[in-house]
Fold this sequence. Notes:
By secondary structure, this protein is an alpha/beta fold. The chain has one domain: Rossmann fold. It is built from seven helices and ten strands. The strands form two sheets. Strands 2, 3, 4, 6, 7, 8, 9 and 10 form an eight-stranded mixed beta sheet that branches. Strands 1-5 form a two-stranded parallel ribbon. Strand 3, helix 3 and strand 4 form a beta-alpha-beta unit. The longest helix has 13 residues. The chain is globular and about 65 Å long. The relative contact order is 0.16. The mean pLDDT is about 90.
Amino acid sequence: MTAAETPPPIRYEAIAPSLPDGPIDLTTLVPGDGPIELDVGFGRGRSLIDRARQRVSRVIGIEIKAKWSFKVEERRAREELHNARAIRGDARELLGRAGPDGCVRRAFVHFPDPWWKKRHAKRMVVSESFLDTLARLIGPGGELYVQTDVEERAAEYEALLTDHPGFAPPGGDGFRVATNPFDALSNREARAAEDGLPVYRLLARRVGH
C-alpha cells in the first residue's frame, strides 16, 4: 500500500458510543431487571467484560477515552454480553444527570486521578461532589469500590469517605481492603500484580436513606 492509499486514522471521537443530552435513566440502558453496577474508568475493559461474564448484574461502563469505549463496546457486542454496555463520557457529568435515585447496587472506580500537580486538582474524579452523586445513585446497603496505585490518592479518598455521611466502612477495620473481592480485575490492576506493584483498595457501604 502506498502512502496515497494509506487509510485515514480512525476518529474514535466521532464513533464512540455516547448518550444524548438531558436526563439519563440508568434502568433503561441495559435490558433486564438485575441489579445495576457502574464501572467507571474501565480503560481497556477487562473489568467490565469479566463482570458481565459473571451475569449477576447489569453493568454500565463509563470511560472518558473514546478509543477504549468504542473497542470495549465492540467486544461486548461480539461476545453477546447483553447485560452490559460501554459508554464514552465524563462520569462526573453523565452521572450528575442520571437517575433514578437509589437504582445502583454497586459502583467501581478504577485508578482515577493520576495527576500530581496542584493545578490539576480541578480535574480529579473522586471528590466530595462526586461522592454526593454516587451517594444519591447507590441505594442503602450498596457498595462503592475504589482502587488506585498512588498511595497519596488512597489517603485522600479515605479522608473523603470518612467525612461523607453517605458512606461507612463495610466492617470494623476501616475502608481499606487487601484484595479485590469481586473476581473482576481491571487491566491496570492485573498489570500491577504482574509487576509486583502495590494497589490500594477502598470499599465503602452506602448508609442512610
